User: What shape does this take?
Amino acid sequence: MNLYAHLIQPFADYGFMRRALVACLALAFGSGPIGTFLVLRRMSLMGDAMSHAILPGAAIGFLVAGLSLWAMSAGGLVVGLAVALLAGVISRTTALREDASLAGFYLISLAAGVLIVSTRGSNIDLLHVLFGSILSVDNEALLLVASISTLSLVTLALIYRPLVAECFDPGFLRAIAGRGSLYHVIFLALVVVNLVAGFQSLGTLMAVGLMMLPAAAARFWAIEVWSLAAVSIAVAFLSGWAGLLLSYNFDMPSGPAIILTAGVFYALSILAGRHGSLRARYFPGAHFHSAPEKTS
Amino acid sequence: MSDPVITVSDLTLAYDRKPAVHHVNGSFGKGSLTAIVGPNGAGKSTLLKSIVGLIAPSEGRIDRHGLKRLDLAYLPQQAEIDRSFPITVADTVALGLWRDTGIFGGVSAAGRRRVVEALASVGLHGFAQNPVGNLSAGQFQRVLFARLLVQDAALILLDEPFAAIDERTTADLMGVVARWHGEGRTVVAVLHDTEDVRAHFPQTLLMARELIGWGPTSEVLTDGNLRRARALAQYWNEGHSHAAHGRAA
Amino acid sequence: MRTAAAALAFGLALVSTPALAKEVSVVASFSVLGDIVKEVGGDKIALTVLVGPDGDAHTFEPSPADAKTLANADLLVVNGLGLESWLPKLAAASGTNARFATASFGVLPRDMNEDGKDITDPHAWQSLSNGAIYVRNVEEALEKVDPADAPTFKANASKLLAELAGLDQWTRQQLAAVPADKRKVITTHDAFGYFGAAYGVTFLAPEGISTDSEPSAKGLAALTDQIKREHIKALFIENMTDPRLMQTISKETGAEMGGELYSDALSAPDGPAPTYPGMFRNNVPKLVAAMLKN
Assistant: This one.
């Protein structure tokens, strides 16, 4: 069968498919590197919690202005940042550690968000907020997503060194620069901002999927920070592409199709990736590594 | 004694609201090589952290005589470092160039040369591109020392630098410490092995939450003082609070 | 004879709702019928409508209060043709002694396809000539139950019939402005079968989307293809709550939403289609305007 017809044609034929694909590309560039750092800093579940924290903010935006891009994004941003800061404060001033306080916020936010949407909207509205609608991305939304991705990449490049130091040797950063928490907060802000970018297209439940699954899959293929980020971006974009094609050919809802595809990539990576996968462990085959053996 | 680099006056430190260091007085002289010695739980690490600025004094003060944060190099115990993080040996050492690069700056060619030289000094020539996760404990400690070298600091603080590493590495790194002393830098190290201390460290600070002795090693590390330290340790190990105990001589 | 009839009516009235001594108590099943009954009955009747404005007569679930209302009624007017599947149970439960009248009696029924099955299309009122049949049936039923007020009913009915006749002519005139090859509309409403047959308009169901789930890429593509294939720009889709999806379709095809149509129920009294004639006066111009863009 014609490869072009299957892989490219649907995007050539329909503008909404093209825009959805471009949105996936922009999201990949923003979420991929952020997801990589989330995984490296062992903050994967925190990313999930943050995406739920955004929900009541977006819901309030929905209450005020319906399914408006700017209202919901602004609402999500404000509440998301507030929750991130609040969780940090609580972990610093009380006995509760950050992961437990975030878990609390996560559940409260999800329930609050559903409640708020239900007061004004129908079930369909709730579905839109939770699952997004990547097929109705318009030029305005594309602009927002692209801007956020660019901002995110630039900021990451700027704080790259302190961020790496904070992940790898936080004690060193504290001793040298004394302001480790500043970079932590900036990073959290980037997480929130990228989740806000993602949730219009993929919904609050799924936006974090495009952040975490490609980054988790990348660990089985790359071993340096920059290559991890690159693989994350690639997997995220391919998931978008394949997911959209699945939705096109098999009448599946597009958001979940994209995330499930990312999930399949992740599963394949666990099974057959280059580093640390089941295959590498049990069927090593040729030696790829050139690292020296451990000596004393 | 030469000019003081760090002076502590009546310093009391609480750690998690438990008393860790009591009423310590004294100074580290410029260019001195001092070992901090004492039983477990004596507050040695806590004292070091307060000098670095990570813990604020509950009472008393620390006078740093104009020394800035970036003039200090601190090597904590290894616990907080994430060895599985994907970073190379060279990049780890290059973190020590922070004073020159700042947050945003790139590493210059001169900086890169210093990294390579430092690696050679600690016996890790050729390891620059290795991921840190592949190294043994001893090799990794050498990397951290290379980073300290590159930091080019006036005051170097080491917390148990030779714990859990092999003899060969300990000897090599002790050589680096000697080199620093030779360059006129002030070095303070928390150590467990009193033999090492007697062999290499001219000054000793002996403490067991309170100061027992601070001065030339031969005068401080006496049998009497060491017995005193052990007795104090036993006292608080049996669950007594430290409140009503007398001051050190 | 007259005295006996009056005594009978009086007796009947005494047995029915005590508060409304002289008025006949009538229950109509849904809002469109309710409007017709109200016009014909005037102030001689006390009218209750079970499925009110903006309600869905297909999926209505009666409450105990409805059973009580029905129990006290003299006359129940229903659409028939399978619209009120909930009615037999309700009537049995209420134990009412009311007379039954089927407004669509005498209408030539059409078939429609719902969920893959062929059934009788109950929306007969969408053709005004059927509407006239409805009016006459209602008039006859009211006269049987309340013969004393027959003259009033006759007069009211004539007035309504005249209005409907005029409306029918107006509808045909309006539609005449649309060329034959443009008389097509895509809508999720499935109630316009009789309208289409009577006035020569083709109503197509939208491919690929439904009102209660998110469209997939395949569904959107199918709809886009359909719109382009049929050269239709007129879309009437209920409950499309995501305006951005509509924009996506518009950008892709040039099609636009034509506004809100009323087919299964009337609107609230302050809405655009509060009466049966009002429904046509709302729908027809919107249909015409949209079709002209095809």
Observations:
- Chain A touches chain C through 33 residues (CB under 8 Å).
- Residues 33 and 229 of chain A are 5 Å apart (CA to CA).
- Chain A has a mean pLDDT of 84.
